[in-house]
Amino acid sequence: MPEVEVGSTRLYYQQAGAGPDVVLVHAVTSNLAVWVFSGLMDALASHYRVTAYDLRGHGMSARPARGYTSAVMAEDFRQLHRALGLKPAYLVGHSFGGVVSMHAAALAPECVAGVVLSDSFFPGLKHIEPNFGKMGLWQEVRQTFARVGVELGETVDFGRLFRETAAMSPEKFQQLEEIYGAFGRGWLRQLPLLASTSCGDDVLAEAGLTADVLRSIQHPVVALYDEFSPFLATANWLQQYLPCCVAEIIPAAKHLAMLDNTAAFTAAVLRHLNRLTGTPGQSHGIAGSA
What we know:
- The chain is of the alpha/beta class and 290 residues long.
- The protein folds into two domains: 3-131 and 205-277, Alpha/Beta hydrolase fold, catalytic domain (Rossmann fold), CATH 3.40.50.1820; 132-201, no CATH class.
- Helix content is 41%, strand content 16%.
- It is built from twelve helices and eight strands.
- An eight-stranded mixed beta sheet has the order 1-2-4-3-5-6-7-8, sandwiched between helices.
- Helix 10 (232-241) links the parallel strand 7 and strand 8.
- Helix 3 (70-84) crosses helix 4 (96-107).
- The termini are far apart.
């Protein structure tokens, strides 16, 4: 099993293809399987050396009790990058994975060639996203859990989600597994494993990635935001204030573009990476500016 030691923890990764380095960084409560399931890893591997890894506490990586801020995970990336002998890489980060990617660009600029964000919320920009706590995806999760008699609260609270899932009876947990189906089952089973960690609080911490730090990032940034995203104000802010940022909307998606509209998301990532790296590839016109 391909693993690498980074500091005091261990990360699981997969690698495919050859060419410029691309690193895929998943969201909190997800794992690298999302890139495999959506086909993005295979699509990129025809032109790039693609590395996907499980963030600490997720998938098959080790699960320390503490250390889940974007700053700590950016350092994990720096050490992963060194251990695998990667060249400056293009990071594709979904949601919190995008926060980690941007923090890596700020803290380890020599390891990063550019960043492709997918619907990321930045705690350092929460003042421009007043409705974050009531995002639609959280309301869907809340309604689903309510079907088995578990109340999660109106606003996003990862810690509560982890604790409630850990405390759930086997019968209720099985009911949720049946509701979520085969793919959602993997996501669900990961939640109670994070209950004994600081992940729930850490991922919503600014952790030094302030608006000013974001403005200072000189790398090219592609901000892919979903048509029905709760974070469109962030997309506009990034395009306005970052020196080298292009923003684009992925149609018919609401935070999980790689699953909601796989074809459009994959085409956009490929097109932008080909543009940034000068790699020949078929052009896919799919979206407008945010």
